Amino acid sequence: MSKTSKKAATEARRAKIEEARRAERARERRNRIITVTVSALIVVGLVGWGAYAINDADKKEDQQAAAAKKPVQGEKSWDAKKLGRNHVQQKVKYPMNPPVGGDHNQAWMTCDGTVYTKPVANENAVHSLEHGAVWVTYNDKAADAEVKTLADKVSKTPYTLMSPDRTQSGAIMLSAWGHQLSVDKASDPRVEQFLTKYVQGAQTPEPGAACTNGLTAS
């Protein structure tokens, strides 16, 4: 091969290599542009989703806060500031039955979803209310099936206790610190509303205080 032919072949290879390099650089630029664009879209999407999630969470919190301020239909309320919180040894004469607060015994009734088959002392149960428990009571007007349904619900709900009270006026009554509801049936939707609102609710004088290791009925 002549020198001229060799030189022409060399130049052709160089041109081909340079063309390949230009094509490779062009592909790399396109890939970088695609990567950056996709990443930007992902970030925008995540930011948008995050903003939506935050707004949705804020909306739910606002709804829950509004529900927490709204009383359960038919409930009675007492001024918590007028309910004593002293520890006493003697029996207390409460102005409502079952009591929803006031001076009480220093020992609380265990209220970790605890179902008692015998009456419990008011003074001990009120101390449980102070810890944020809801006390469910019933009398002879409540059918056995209703009592069983209530017992099943209470046993699955921490910070609750249940016991019979033949002296109360309503068939089924739910008491929290400063609040009380009377219903005829366990299936009444207000039962769940009351539990949701007042188990460790905003009314609790001592939120987070123990409901375990208290007294238990004999």
From TrEMBL:
Keywords: Membrane, Transmembrane, Transmembrane helix
Regions crossing the membrane: 33-54
Database matches in InterPro entries: DUF3105
One family name in Pfam for this protein: DUF3105
Superkingdom, natural source: Bacteria
Biased composition (Basic and acidic residues): 8-27
Location of region: Disordered: 1-27
Protein name: DUF3105 domain-containing protein
Source lineage: Bacteria, Bacillati, Actinomycetota, Actinomycetes, Kitasatosporales
